Amino acid sequence: MLVIHGVTRSRASRLIWLCHEIGLDYRQEPVIQAYRLADPMARDAPLNTRTPAFLALSPAGAIPVIEDDGLVLSESMACTLYLARKHGLPLGPADAAEDALMMQWSFFAATAIEPDALTVLFLGDSRGSEDRALVANAAERLMRPLQVLEDHLSRGGQMVGNRFTVADINVAEVIRYAQGHDALMARFPSLIAWLQDCQKRPAFQTMWAMRQAEPA
Ligand SMILES: N[C@@H](CCC(=O)N[C@@H](CS)C(=O)NCC(=O)O)C(=O)O
């Protein structure tokens, strides 16, 4: 059976959402981020990203990691793209061209959007003037890539193939990090409508309930 290492309050959320879309059985090992623990090396510390047994699986010390039929794989989007391709339509690609487009949009989200979107997520509620400047700069840099998504979604409605796919999951989970910045998101009506549709899906709701059930 597929094993997902990582708590749901992490990028493992992408994999969990995908598994529930596909109806794929999995076992979750709740490895937690070391930075969320006071002493990750303490004897009674929960399994975390600095635990030697986990580092043996993932030398980079990052979640999520999957084990599937002897394959050990890290990088959340490599995992979602692999699982979607393995389990096929409709979440996975119909052909090489769709596969390429799914990778294109996933890499675009991970490289052009995710770092600044995470700044918005982590510092968005901060009152400090330095943090507010960082958020303002991040929001400014996000304008261009978000406009690319806005233009794309206003033409087709979905990321790839006029249907909901792994590309929607990968991109939606990145955009979620910036979703709380109302002034930014209000500029992109097609993007926000698409995101809301993605998040209404039962599989997303299942993943979200799992996340909320975990300690913050
Ligand atoms: N690009 C990687 C990033 C992985 C990553 O940074 N994961 C975070 C949690 S979402 C982590 O494990 N941090 C561990 C730590 O800082 O201790 C991916 O998409 O999987």
Automatic annotation (TrEMBL):
Check the record and name the PANTHER family matching this protein: GLUTATHIONE S-TRANSFERASE GSTA, GLUTATHIONE S-TRANSFERASE-RELATED
Q: Where would I find the GST N-terminal domain in this sequence?
A: 1-91
PROSITE patterns linked = GST_CTER, GST_NTER
Please name the Pfam families in this protein's record: GST_C, GST_N_2
- In this chain the GST C-terminal domain maps to 95-216
Q: What is this protein called?
A: Glutathione S-transferase family protein
Q: What is the top-level taxon of the source organism?
A: Bacteria
